């Protein structure tokens, strides 16, 4: 009996010793890889963490997890792994292609597309893990209109705030232009769709979103849509994507900073800022993001534009709907290297007003270093002004011109290091310390400290749409 | 015997059960407030975390911690609290003023100044906590040449390499002897350089690493000083500064470092909210080898809200400004090495004409675009002013001042008796370009070969008698006081 008591006493003592750290993190829910289907374990940990209240953590151990769709509502806490490259999350079919795929389930208030992990509402911090989708068909195509790729790997929706730190997003081979997921990360609100798949209202999300120190490789990197009265920071990430690295669409009254990233894209642009994305589909001006304009800061990024891609595209469709322009951006101190054979420019402006393009260094082979006011003449889009741009102190001396465009007679159509197209107006170009050649076809522009090029004899282009360009490059199916 | 066997089996099972979470996070070290001196507990947790290897965490729970200096070398991990305002770190004398104060540490890899928490080397993430220094004399003055205030509350020091990230950290100094406060800097990030017998550095204090201060709030004498940042990145974003002397002092950045200060709210009363200063170390003993190595850093100061106000300390009136840029390289016959864009900031100057919104004291090719500057100032944008004030002439060349809105700014010569305007190009300005925005702008151009477009030039009378310029005088004082 005495020995028994001693053992019990020791037990209690040992329990106390081991319990201390456990009690200090009472709201941490651990999940270890099972080697099989981890969907239930991960979902159960999230459900328990939400129930435990704000500040809880779902902690994954090192190893490979295989999961189908995880949906978490109103989670205010952390989702952590043991490190990028240590904790991997794959779709279930990454374990065996014969296993069930991701299915699209109609939920209220969530856009109907296939994702692997979604956070609806809440405030979530995701860190130190890698999403690596290896199956060629992660999605059950029969349940998804025949499409077998993920629209996004991770989806933040509802009125959610999110922070992603040191997270890897990698799409593998699949049927979406060669990839098994369209986007690495989507942050977007919800809006109902009509029977044609067009939006019925703006997909609003009002939160504080940050994506820092992450790496993206796949079709598209990060897409943020409908950020209204929010903040977005995209900093110190590495993007290596086919179509685009980072797109911010339809934001209103928000502050957006995209800085210190390394980016590479091959089909569209490294960075796309587009106001009027949703309204473009249904032509419904009520879907324009609300004013005041968001304030974008795009700085100190290193961008590589290959294939048919450019560096930054700034597009505001508001004028097409007779609405005031709603995009305010400073694009400064970026290094953009072009290697696109003359398909696109380092910085494109489409229908935007008062953008400040300052002290960027653009080099390599492309159609232009900086171009605006060209969408109608070159791409055959409707005509609307790019006005009041201030293009100051950029170094475009290393841009070697190439062209994939021809005029009506079939002769090559050339861009310029800085090209103010026919729809440019009231723009200011001030040269930097290196010589800057400017082709000015616009009206009421002011050029200082630059070399003005003579206007070409042939003015009419044979316009080519962006989609066509992508088709020609074999980027789109 | 059967029952006895059963108990060890149960014990083992229970241990396994409870141990599982502990093993799953073997690298998190928890510290709870003791109610007394927490120095030893915090230091011990860091020592264990460093030993456990990269990715470890020192987690403080909610409550008040009292500590003297904690010094951590080569920590690659996280230092976390339970939230701003929930986990509060104070100096030991905050518990009782008669307890031992912070002492000046001496080591071959430490700059000779006092701090509360110092990280040497490593890669640290600090988040979700408050530093709030309440003792009037946090430092043992006898060990620190008679000075009883902290030089820095948190210091990141790299003998070449150190990276840091501060998220949701609030740092505030209390009342004390450094211009009324008990700590000089809230955060210092600097390289290491040995000093000579006069306290001047004998080499360039290079620090390589990625530094980030985001969503923090800093209140005290100075907010952040970053010195010697070399071939590296710095972001200061979304933070609130409410400081006596300055918000951010970014000096001697080198080798094309990329620096962004954006979306911050800043108030200052003595010097400026954002100060970019190249040649800080060289100015100590006039040694041009201490100039930061080229190529120039690329600074972007963008979308900040700044309030420039005044304060009276010991009977002397001080006035703060918005952004201050100085590159002393030409003083040494060396090429310029400060390259900055100041864009989209909203600056309110409320100093009755004692200071400016944006001040350029020697620099080349700075871009000042689309800022809104209002209030009552000597000038909204003031460039090339040294000769006008009787200081060593310092050229400001090739500035591009474009599309700023100064329509709400009253420029007054009341304090200095010198002619002025909303934009002032002083006698040392040359080859500058000023292009007005959509609101009327007055420009006084006393420089040479400047180009003015779409602005209203004002008459440039002959130079008048120079009077004291307090912000500059204050700058010299600050240089003398620097660590």
Characterize the structure shown.
- The complex is a heterodimer of chains A (477) and B (483).
- Chain A is mostly beta strands and 477 residues long.
- Chain A has a single domain (28-472), classed as 3 Solenoid (Pectate Lyase C-like), CATH 2.160.20.
- Chain A contains 5 helices and 35 strands.
- Chain A has helices at residues 2-24, 39-52, 277-282, 375-379, 466-472, and strands at residues 28-31, 56-60, 63-67, 70-80, 87-91, 115-133, 150-157, 161-171, 173-176, 181-188, 208-212, 215-225, 231-235, 238-249, 255-259, 262-265, 269-275, 295-299, 302-306, 310-316, 328-332, 335-339, 345-350, 356-358, 361-366, 368-372, 386-387, 390-392, 395-401, 418-420, 424-425, 428-430, 437-440, 446-448, 451-452.
- In chain A, strands 6-7-10-12-8 form a 5-stranded parallel beta barrel. In chain A, strands 16-19-22-25-29 form a 5-stranded parallel sheet, with no helix packed on it. Chain A has a two-stranded parallel sheet with strand order 27-31.
- The radius of gyration of chain A is 25 Å and the shape is elongated.
- In chain A, 57% of the residues are buried.
- With 483 residues, chain B is mostly beta strands.
- Chain B has a single domain (48-481), classed as Pectate Lyase C-like, CATH 2.160.20.
- Helix content of chain B is 11%, strand content 44%.
- Chain B is elongated, with a radius of gyration of 25 Å.
- The model of chain B is unreliable at 1-26 and 462-483 (pLDDT under 50).
- The chains are: A mainly beta (477), B mainly beta (483).
- At the A-B interface, helix 1, strand 13, strand 15 and strand 18 of A face helix 1, strand 15, strand 17, strand 19 and strand 22 of B.
């Amino acid at each position: 009996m005495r020995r028994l008591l001693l053992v019990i006493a020791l037990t209690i003592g040992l329990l106390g010793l081991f319990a201390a750290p456990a009690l200090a993190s009472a709201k941490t829910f651990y999940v270890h890889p099972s080697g099989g289907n981890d969907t239930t374990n991960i979902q159960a940990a999230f459900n328990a963490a939400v129930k435990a209240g704000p500040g809880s953590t779902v902690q994954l151990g090192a190893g490979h997890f295989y999961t189908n769709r995880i949906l978490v509502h109103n989670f205010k806490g952390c989702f952590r792994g043991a490190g990028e490259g240590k904790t991997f999350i794959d779709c279930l079919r990454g374990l065996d292609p014969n296993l069930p795929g991701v299915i699209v389930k109609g939920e209220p208030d969530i856009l109907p597309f296939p994702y692997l992990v979604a956070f609806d509402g809440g405030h979530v911090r995701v860190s130190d893990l890698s999403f690596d989708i290896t199956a060629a068909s992660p999605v059950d195509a029969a349940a998804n209109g025949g499409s077998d790729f993920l629209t996004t790997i991770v989806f933040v929706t509802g009125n959610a705030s999110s922070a992603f730190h040191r997270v890897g997003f990698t799409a593998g081979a699949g049927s979406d232009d060669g990839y098994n997921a369209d986007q690495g990360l989507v942050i977007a609100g919800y809006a109902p769709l009509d029977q044609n798949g067009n939006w019925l209202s703006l997909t609003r999300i009002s939160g504080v979103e940050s994506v820092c120190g992450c790496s993206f490789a796949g079709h598209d990197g990060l897409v943020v849509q409908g950020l209204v009265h929010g903040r977005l920071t995209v900093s110190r990430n590495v993007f290596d994507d086919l179509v685009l690295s980072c797109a911010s669409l339809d934001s209103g009254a928000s502050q957006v900073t995209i800085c210190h990233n390394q980016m590479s894209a091959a089909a569209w642009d490294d960075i796309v800022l587009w106001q009027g994305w949703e309204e473009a589909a249904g032509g419904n001006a009520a879907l324009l993001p609300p004013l005041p304009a968001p304030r974008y800061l795009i700085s100190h990024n290193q961008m590589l534009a290959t294939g048919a891609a450019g560096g930054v595209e700034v597009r505001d469709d508001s004028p097409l709907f007779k609405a005031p322009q709603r995009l305010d951006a400073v694009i400064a101190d970026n290094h953009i290297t072009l290697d696109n054979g003359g398909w696109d420019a380092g910085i494109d402006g489409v229908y935007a007003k008062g953008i400040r393009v300052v002290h960027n260094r653009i080099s390599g082979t492309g159609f232009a270093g900086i171009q605006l006011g060209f969408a109608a003449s070159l791409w055959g889009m409707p005509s609307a002004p790019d006005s009041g741009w201030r293009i100051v102190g950029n170094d475009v001396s290393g841009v070697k011109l190439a062209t994939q465009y021809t005029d009506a007679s079939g002769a090559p159509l050339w861009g310029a290091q800085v090209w103010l197209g026919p729809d440019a107006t009231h723009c200011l170009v001030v040269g930097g310390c290196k010589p800057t050649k400017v082709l000015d076809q616009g009206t009421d522009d002011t050029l200082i400290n630059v070399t003005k090029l003579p206007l070409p004899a042939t003015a009419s282009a044979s316009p080519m749409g962006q989609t066509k360009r992508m088709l020609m490059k074999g980027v789109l199916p | 015997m059967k029952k006895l066997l059963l108990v060890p089996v149960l014990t083992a099972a229970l241990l396994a059960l409870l141990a599982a979470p502990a093993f799953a996070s073997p690298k998190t070290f928890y510290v709870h407030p003791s109610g007394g001196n927490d120095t030893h507990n915090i230091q011990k947790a860091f020592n264990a975390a460093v030993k456990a290897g990269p990715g470890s965490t020192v987690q403080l729970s909610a409550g008040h911690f009292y500590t003297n200096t904690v010094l951590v070398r080569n920590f690659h991990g996280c230092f976390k609290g339970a939230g701003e305002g929930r986990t509060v770190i104070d100096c030991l004398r905050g518990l009782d003023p008669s307890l031992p104060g912070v002492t000046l540490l001496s080591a071959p890899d430490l700059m000779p100044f006092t701090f509360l928490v110092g990280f040497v080397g490593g890669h640290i993430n600090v988040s979700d906590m408050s530093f709030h220094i309440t003792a009037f004399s946090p430092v043992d003055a006898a060990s620190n040449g008679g000075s009883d205030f902290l030089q820095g509350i948190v210091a990141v020091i790299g003998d070449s390499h150190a990276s840091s990230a501060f998220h949701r950290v609030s740092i505030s100094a209390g009342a004390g002897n450094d211009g009324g406060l008990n700590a000089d800097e809230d955060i210092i990030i600097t390289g290491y350089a040995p000093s000579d017998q006069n306290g001047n550095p004998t080499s360039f204090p290079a620090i390589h690493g990625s530094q980030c201060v985001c969503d923090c709030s800093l209140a005290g004498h100075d907010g952040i000083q970053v010195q010697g940042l070399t071939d590296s990145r710095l972001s200061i974003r979304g933070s609130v500064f409410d400081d006596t002397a300055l918000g951010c002092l970014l000096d001697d950045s080198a080798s094309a470092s990329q620096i962004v200060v954006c979306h911050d709210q800043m108030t200052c009363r003595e010097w400026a909210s954002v100060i970019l200063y190249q040649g800080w170390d060289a100015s100590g003993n006039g040694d041009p080898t201490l100039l930061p190595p080229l190529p120039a850093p690329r600074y972007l100061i963008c979308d900040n809200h700044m309030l420039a106000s005044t304060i009276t300390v010991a009977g002397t009136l001080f006035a703060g400004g918005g952004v201050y840029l100085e590159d002393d390289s030409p003083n040494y016959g060396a090429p310029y090495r400060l390259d900055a864009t100041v864009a989209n900031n909203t600056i309110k100057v409320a100093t009755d004409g004692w200071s400016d919104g944006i001040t350029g004291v020697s620099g080349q090719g700075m871009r000042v675009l689309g800022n809104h500057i209002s209030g009552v100032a000597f000038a909204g944008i003031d460039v090339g002013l040294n000769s006008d004030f009787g200081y060593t002439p310092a050229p400001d060349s090739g500035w591009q001042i474009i599309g700023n809105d100064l329509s709400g700014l009253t420029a007054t010569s009341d304090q200095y008796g010198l002619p002025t305007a909303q934009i002032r190009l002083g006698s040392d300005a040359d080859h500058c370009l000023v292009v007005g925005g959509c609101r009327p702008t007055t420009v006084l151009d006393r420089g040479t070969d400047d180009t003015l477009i779409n602005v209203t030039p004002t008459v440039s009378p002959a130079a008048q008698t120079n009077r004291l310029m307090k912000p500059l005088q204050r700058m010299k004082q600050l240089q003398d006081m620097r660590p």
